[in-house]
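## Example record

The block below lists the input lines for one assembly entry, exactly as stored, with component labels intact.
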Amino acid sequence: MSLPLETKILVVDDFESMRRIVKQVLHDIGFKDISLADDGATALPLLKNGDFGFLITDWNMPQMEGIDLVKAVRADPRLKSMPILMVTAEAKREQIIQAAQAGVNDYIVKPFTPDTLKAKIEKIFKGLAGK
Amino acid sequence: MTTGVFDPEQMIVERLQGKAAELASCLESHDMVGAFSVIEHINAVREESIFYGLGLLARGLHTAIVTFEVDDHGKHYLAEDETGAAGLTSQLDNVVRMSEESARKTLNILDATLPMVRDLRVAADRASSSAGVQGDFLEAQKSGLQQIEQNLMEILMAQGFQDLSGQAIRKVNGILGNLQKDLIALLTYANHVKTMSEPLPVQGADAVSDESAPVSAAAEEEAKEAALSQGSVDDLLASLGF
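Predicted structure tokens for the full assembly:
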């Protein structure tokens, strides 16, 4: 499928290396407008004041964890329909269930491959297009 | 006999042997009150030996954390912390910083190289379709650039180790800190129990004394705090006789 490559994306992870890896893979897919944040507390104001169309977030972060960021986005009337992909090292069943209940569109366990990230993004946007 | 090195096990054996002789003496003279009193003391020795075991464990863990050593090669990279001690948790933090810096350098090079390779590959792709006799050369160039791009992407993804190893080290650091804190709290609690029975001698480097070290109110209060500094942990352990 053809992805909406003009979508503005926010990548949130407390490790700089992971932020840059995700950004580079997104570039490789064809996305051009990518911003970065190092935890939920810095990401939320960016989301509220920006015109982002897609959020990719880690779980374990200082100040505000990814799961709380997801809940905050889903509770915000303007942001609540934003697609969210969680990319995290947390792989326990109950955590995945918790993330799903909080409202993530999909979930990737680190380490991941570029193909996995691309497939998940395609799945998310395909699902949105079908609605 | 004093050997110059404190041996808690030997001390407990000697105490029990002394109490056993007292017990035998009481039984021979049909002094049942005295016999039961000696048995109570024997029970107290058992509890105190557990207390000493905990104390030695806490001291061992604390010493290991504070004086953690790395080999000469590692020392070249690892700095001492602000207290001057090359502590375990500080060194693990340094490992995270080092790997982060290494990953950053690699990513900087990849950021500069990947777009160039992509542009070259796209240019070769366009040129090969209208290159005539040079088509084979351009096709080979395109193929090579594709492989280089793929290899660079694999190097990029491999930098993800820094995130995962960093998270693991942070968790280990947290567990070590909590373990030390919990042991100190347990030791303080055990000391309260200890004061209800006859105290054992204080540990010494070259002699065994029959006096127990009093725990100061300040030291007990310190042990209750959520986070203790390395220095205050040292002070508290010392006040408890370890």
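Helices of chain A lie at 16-29, 40-49, 66-75, 93-102, 114-129. Chain A has one domain: 9-122.
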